[in-house]
Design a protein that fits this description.
The chain is of the alpha+beta class. The chain is built from 2 helices and 4 strands. The protein has a 4-stranded antiparallel beta sheet with strand order 1-2-3-4, covered by helices on one side. A hairpin with a 2-residue loop joins strand 2 and strand 3.
């Protein structure tokens, strides 16, 4: 399993409930959901990726919003560094 299949099913369910026509495409070692022939959301391993407007982090306050979300989650995340 190169990507989280359960997450893929959840994404499909949301898109279907919103009646958004989509196709699936293997990409970047994961799975992407194409809408209007453009990548919209996808999965790499267990991580969700979302294509957002670059202006969604263009302003300092917008960038700070995304950084705050990452900082809020960081204590819960596993370290990639192996402890010796």
């Amino acid at each position: 399993m190169a990507y989280n299949e359960f997450l893929a099913e959840r994404i499909k369910l949301v898109l279907k409930e919103k009646t958004v026509p989509f196709t699936e495409k293997a990409m970047m070692g994961g799975l992407t959901f194409m809408i209007d022939d453009k990548m919209c959301v996808g999965i790499v391993k267990d991580s969700l990726m979302a294509r957002i407007d670059p202006e969604g982090y263009d302003l300092d306050t917008d960038l700070e919003y995304w950084i705050d979300l990452a900082l809020e989650y960081n204590p819960k995340a596993r370290s990639s560094k192996k402890k010796t």
